[in-house]
Amino acid sequence: MTDYLDRLEQQLTAASSRLHQADNPAPEPSRRWMFGGRRGRIGLGVVLAALATGSAVAAINPWAPESVTDRDGQPGPRITASAAPADITAALGVLRRTPTASDRAPDLERLLVYAGTPKSTNGIRTDLIRRVGTTPAGAPIVLVPLTDWTPDPSIPVKRDPVCLIYPEPGNHGAAKGCWTLAEIRAGTAQASLGQHVYGVVPDGVTTVTAVYDTGPSATATVNDNAFDLAAPRQMSFESTFGASSDGATPAIPRAFFWTDKNGTTIPQRAP
User: Fold this and answer.
1) CA distance 39 to 4
2) Span 246-267, pLDDT tens digits
3) 222, 92 contact by CB (below 8 A)
4) Domain boundaries along the sequence of the chain
5) DSSP-assigned states of every residue in 91-134
6) Given CA atoms 254, 88, 133, 137 in this order, what sign does their dihedral have?
7) Is 249:262 a contact under the CB 8 Å cutoff?
8) Which 3 state secondary structure label does DSSP give 214?
9) pLDDT tens-digit series, residues 176-234
């Protein structure tokens, strides 16, 4: 960083000197403006300070999408620039990667209306929001870290949970699941919407397999610590007796298994 700033100072000094010579072909010595002079040093100081504090400014002013901060004229949940706890960041590589354009795309931002309400959700870490997948309908699956979440007064507050927003087909709504690091490590960080089971897993897991009492298992590839698998259908009472099979419901997994890139089973930690 020091070498970079030194080179930048040299380049700015040279550019200033050239501009000065072009505008003032024969300046008087007493009026000469040199970049190394007092005024020049102030200008360079501003440039270097802006470079050095850019990340600090970003931390003070987190991303503030209107779908979170403005709910039809009413304030939305609080947003925060706070970092996720170190153990969560260490366990989830998605929180360590730099955001991309798809992480701030309009179709993702629209889904953040489902991130929570001021009553249930306190502190959305908007700078850590990431697109972690795409539904079969082409909508983003969104990972949203929170400082805490209370979906119901009768349920204990979840501290520093990581949530997934899974949109319904046609963008008519969305499901959301939120889990603590202990739940993620224990393999219980999953939820379902229709035929899809989705969830969050720690680093090192590359595939998730759901096993059912009857019928075939289902396997999904992990992307950015998230998975989305299509559950096999189990026949409803009506379809068993010859009625329309439209009433079929998703089968409930008996167990989940994780494997790494070598196909080795990864044990899940008890909470």
Assistant:
1) 22
2) 445 667 788 899 999 999 999 8
3) no
4) 2-52, 62-266
5) H-GGGTSPP-GGGG-HHHHHHGGGS--TTTEEEE-GGG-EEEEE
6) positive
7) no
8) coil
9) 999 999 999 999 999 988 888 999 999 999 999 999 887 788 999 999 999 999 887 76
